[in-house]
Amino acid sequence: MKKFGIAIGLWCIFLIPLGLYAQQSTLRTQIEEIAKPVKGIVGVSILGLESRDTLSLNGKAPLVLHSVMKFPIALTVLHLVDSGVMRLDQTIHITKRDLPKKTYSPLRDKYPQGDVDVPVSELLGDMVSLSDNNACDILLKQISGPKTVQDYMLHLGIRGIAIRTSEADMASSWELQYVNWCKPKEMTVLLDQFYAGKILSKSSTDFLYKIMTETSTGPKRLRGLLPPGTIVANKTGTSPTNAEGLTPATNDVGIITLPNGKHLAIAVFVCNSTNDEQTREGVIAKIAKAAYDYYGK
Hints:
With 297 residues, this protein is α+β, with helices and mostly antiparallel strands. The protein has helices at 2-35, 70-82, 106-110, 120-129, 133-142, 146-155, 167-172, 184-195, 202-213, 277-295; strands at residues 41-48, 54-57, 63-64, 91-94, 116-119, 161-162, 181-182, 232-238, 247-257, 263-273.
């Protein structure tokens, strides 16, 4: 009888992880089915910030980054704030030349004539929450360019994110947008380190998290199918579409607060797709909802 009890106990020990694996396998199959309509590459990485559970699809593929790069740039700027090199209330003088017209820029719309001093905090808010391209390049110039960001990522041990060119450079040449890339799994590692407070001071972490929750771009992506009021701290990335209908990047990465109080780091990249925008964004939304339903139980 004693041996029988031990056998039952051992069976239960092995049964629990097998059951969890089977459930996760179901989620993976669901994500693969959601990704099927995409004519291109779908990269997905999911990390439970409390459970440490992981799931990925093409998670190690280097995919076009686009404006998702503004999250690592913000981390770098705020690291310099924490180091005393910069201040959030420090102002940067912006000229009309700093505000080119042929790019997305609410900052330019706000100050069309330039000749204005704008605090770093406002530029960060515009860059992250509004994905302002001019605010991005102004901050990059202030920190001596993309190399500073790349060096800081390497300092953090992040080797699967490449940031080598600015928004203006990408806009000047179709090929240059491929220079900035990211492996989805590496992005969730970075999100995890950020959320855990391992990168920035608490005040800087709280500031960046807040402006990420105020993101207004890509409302039909990670947020698209989630219940109203769900807290999502995210950063989108979107490339132009060429004459042949090719879109190199439709991306969204971020941290989702689940109904059980836990958190999910998620990165979804739709790369080199010839699908329409509704399909590309719909895939991101469906993957986020599937992950939300699975991990939010």
